Amino acid sequence: MSEVQILLSRCQELGATFSPGSDGKLKVKAPAPLPAHLLQELKQHKPEILAILKAISFLRAKLTTPQRIGPLILEWTGERDGSTGRWVDDLMAARWALNVQAFIDDDDKCWWRLPHPTLQ
User: Fold this and answer.
1) Distance separating alpha carbons of residues 71 and 87, to the nearest angstrom
2) Contacts (Cβ under 8 Å, ≥6 apart) of 29
3) 69 within 8 A of 112, measured Cβ to Cβ
4) Using an 8 Å Cβ cutoff, are 56 and 63 in contact?
5) pTM attached to this predicted model
6) How many domains is the chain built from?
7) Rounded distance, CA 74 to CA 1, Å?
8) Domain of 85?
9) pLDDT tens digits for 14-67?
């Protein structure tokens, strides 16, 4: 688990939720104010957090049904040319955040799915 994932977990344990705001801002909602040291860490890691939120949105949209892993990664990263400027690490962090499950289907291919049918 990365430093950013640990930070997000600590904040989520306090009830915080995150969303991208306009103009590259990070919106944080929590039932009580977060401690100053956590707010400072969030500011320091804002670009990484925003990248993970973008990846979470991508996976939620794509995993309305199970999807093969390879094509998802290629689409996220910009096929083979890397033209999107997005990183596999962000996609893996989003996978962790959403608890995406990997499985091998009858076709012997690797697939991802969201953990609960209600989320799909």
Assistant:
1) 14
2) 16, 17, 18, 19
3) yes
4) no
5) 0.84
6) 1
7) 23
8) 3-119
9) 999 999 988 889 999 999 999 999 999 999 999 999 999 999 999 999 999 999
